[in-house]
Amino acid sequence: MVKLKGKPKFCFSTLQREVTLVKYSATSVKGYASAWDSVTHYGHTLCLDSELNCGLEISSTNVKELVEMVEFQPYATCPLEMMSKIVQFKEVGKKIVCVGRNYREHAAELNNPVPSKPMLFLKPTSAYISEGETIKIPKGCSDLNHEVELGIVIGTTARDVPQADAMNYVGGYALGLDMTARDWQAEAKSKGHPWSVAKGFDTSCPISKFIEKEKIPNPNNLDIWLKVNGEMRQSGNTKDMIFPIEHLISFASQCFTLEPGDLLLTGTPSGVSKLNSGDVIQAGLADIIQIQFSVK
Ligand SMILES: O=C([O-])CC(=O)C(=O)O
């Protein structure tokens, strides 16, 4: 049991009820919790002690102490109900917005020009698979490629947001693969057709579980890598993105209303290569998360 010292000072309203944010420290994360609610928030289940309306019982084993009351945080304008929902972004999100050619070396390896503004395309959410499921080489595809990417999970509805405010709309992150039928993409490119089939087929978006926003203080400087059968194929850093996260969110929000749970995939570093049935893909984001998928 962790007890708050003194009276809560900072309150804000959610759709449900008035809550107070408190800050607690843990060995690995810092999180925010409501003192009068029982919510799963950033992966920690927090329960109100009914006797002490300033008390919190935190079920996570590594929470050490309550640090302080915190001031109103812009991202907390997302109602707590919604915040706990975006952890389920695969279920609640309505779209996957992808960015093409956001790393110079990747544009060069496929002989593509570097874009002067973000190049966006969409995948359907039916493309999602989670660990334990298999990437299926689509029938008729003879050149399935991996593209590892940092994903941004939108936390709050974003429309025409300026770059300076863009990070306030981030709810969290995920590590994703933008699986690409390269032969189908090449054919579409040559005919001036869209990439929907080459990029949006079933199982074309293997994705990690939700990563808490707090775990990534600077998403614009993160090692990102991918191995096939234990061999490193892609090894990059998000600092090499042509358009950083703030730019991408701002730009994308001028094209589409970004809604809570939507995913923005930020482009892939160089090293993409052909996959075969039986291959095993491992990918990682700094020391934050690793994923594994097999190909069939
Ligand atoms: O298929 C491509 O090369 C475009 C793309 O998605 C990326 O650059 O991440």
From TrEMBL:
Keywords linked to the UniProt accession: Metal-binding
InterPro entries: Fumarylacetoacetase-like_C, Fumarylacetoacetase_C_sf
Reaction equation(s) it catalyzes: oxaloacetate + H(+) = pyruvate + CO2; acetylpyruvate + H2O = acetate + pyruvate + H(+); a 3-acylpyruvate + H2O = a carboxylate + pyruvate + H(+); 3-fumarylpyruvate + H2O = fumarate + pyruvate + H(+)
UniProt-recorded Gene Ontology molecular function terms: acetylpyruvate hydrolase activity; acylpyruvate hydrolase activity; metal ion binding; oxaloacetate decarboxylase activity; oxaloacetate tautomerase activity
GO cellular component term, pick one: mitochondrion
Highest taxon of the lineage: Eukaryota
Keyword check for Metal-binding: yes
Methyltransferase is among the record's keywords: no
Pfam family, one: FAA_hydrolase
All copies of domain Fumarylacetoacetase-like C-terminal, residue ranges: 95-295
GO annotation, biological process: carboxylic acid metabolic process
EC code(s) of this entry: 3.7.1.5, 4.1.1.112, 5.3.2.2
PANTHER family according to UniProt: ACYLPYRUVASE (PTHR11820), ACYLPYRUVASE FAHD1, MITOCHONDRIAL (PTHR11820:SF7)
Stated family: Belongs to the FAH family.
Protein known as: Oxaloacetate tautomerase FAHD1, mitochondrial
